[in-house]
TrEMBL record:
Stated name of the protein: Copper-translocating P-type ATPase
Similarity annotation: Belongs to the cation transport ATPase (P-type) (TC 3.A.3) family. Type IB subfamily.
UniProt superkingdom: Bacteria
Main localization (coarse): membrane
Subcellular compartments: Cell membrane; Endomembrane system
UniProt keyword list: ATP-binding, Cell membrane, Membrane, Metal-binding, Nucleotide-binding, Translocase, Transmembrane, Transmembrane helix
Lineage: Bacteria, Pseudomonadati, Pseudomonadota, Alphaproteobacteria, Rhodobacterales
Species assigned in the record: Sinisalibacter lacisalsi
Leader peptide range in chain numbering: none
Span of the entire protein shown here: 463 to 754 of 813
Length: 292
């Protein structure tokens, strides 16, 4: 009877857009205590827009955006696309970039027209010893609104604070409520700014937040959650989520996410919709109840 019930559960899942890729996923899922979610592209659309640009004294918005967008044109990060679209909308022509480096989890560094251009999180500016002065207040206030603040520096001097805003997916609030009703803890793991992450978590009623995690740090965050709460599921979409998807007791990939994430997952939410997480756990509970 056991294999039959598992087959029925797996088949029902497939009908509901929840693909159990590994045999024991349906069994392990029953005991899940905490569901950890990646933020960008999982809780949010993953398509941020530039919402604000506040320049330092004496800097023009167009001049800053011209250099910043040129540098970001070399980056693959969703933040880069947001800044590029904003420059395009304003009809800004981009200069040639002579040198470029992506610093994952920090930001980017480029040489343009003989100037050194830095764009990224506050920890990039710390690392490069840029004194941010009054811009930190502006950034803090943008973060409290749930926006991600970024700094730009040109030749060692702060030039602007920019903010990008990534809309929460319409189905996210109901998905989190469903997990809470099932008695589960809900956590967020993100590389984004802490204050931004806290603002979004508060809006969504998320119980635990781990923010400003470097790409390799997501696995550690999963291990900490497991030690504190027990069996841990992780939901993610990105290349940088693959190690955490593999490390979690159950890894669930957003079906519209990257192939690398899907390859590392035990369960694929085909529709890309987060309510599939609760569906998967319901199915698992019902299947295991039938077996006993
Ligand atoms: P996440 O995908 O969760 O945002 P990342 O590790 O990709 O995590 O990025 C962490 C932070 O590093 C971003 O929130 C941003 O502050 C900074 N960053 C990364 N790439 C860029 C970029 N191309 N331009 C500006 N900032 C960046
Ligand atoms: Mg993501």
């Amino acid at each position: 009877a056991t294999p039959t019930s598992i087959m029925v559960g797996t088949g029902r899942g497939a009908e509901l857009g929840v693909l159990f890729r590994k045999g024991d996923a349906l069994q392990v899922m029953e005991g899940v205590k905490v569901v950890a979610l990646d933020k960008t592209g999982t809780l949010t659309e993953g398509r941020p827009e530039l919402s604000d640009i506040v320049t330092a004294d004496g800097m023009s918005e167009a001049d800053v955006l011209r250099l910043v967008a040129a540098a970001e044109a070399q980056s693959e990060h969703p933040i880069a696309s947001a800044i590029l679209r904003a420059a395009e909308e304003r009809g800004i022509a981009l200069p040639k970039v002579d040198k470029f480096r992506a610093l994952p989890g920090y930001g980017i560094k480029a040489e343009i027209e003989g100037k050194t251009v830095l764009v990224g999180a506050d920890r990039l500016m710390e690392r490069e010893k840029i004194a941010l002065g009054a811009l930190t207040d502006t950034a803090a206030s943008l973060a409290r609104d749930g926006k991600t603040p970024l700094y730009a520096a040109i030749d060692g001097a702060p030039a602007a604070v920019l903010a990008v805003e990534d809309p929460i997916k319409p189905s996210t609030p109901a998905a989190i409520e469903a997990l809470h009703r099932m008695g589960l803890e809900v956590a967020m793991i993100t590389g984004d700014n802490s204050a931004t992450a806290e603002a979004i978590a508060q809006r969504l009623g998320i119980d635990h937040v781990t923010a400003e995690v470097l790409p390799r740090g997501k696995v550690k965050a999963i291990e900490d959650l497991r030690a504190a709460h027990g069996i841990t599921a992780f939901v993610g979409d990105g290349i940088n989520d693959a190690p955490a998807l593999a490390a979690a007791d159950i890894g669930l990939a957003i079906g519209t996410g990257t192939d690398v994430a899907i390859g590392a997952a035990d369960v694929v939410l085909v529709s890309g919709e987060l309510p599939g997480v609760a569906t998967a756990i319901h199915l698992s509970r019902r299947t295991m109840r039938n077996i006993r």
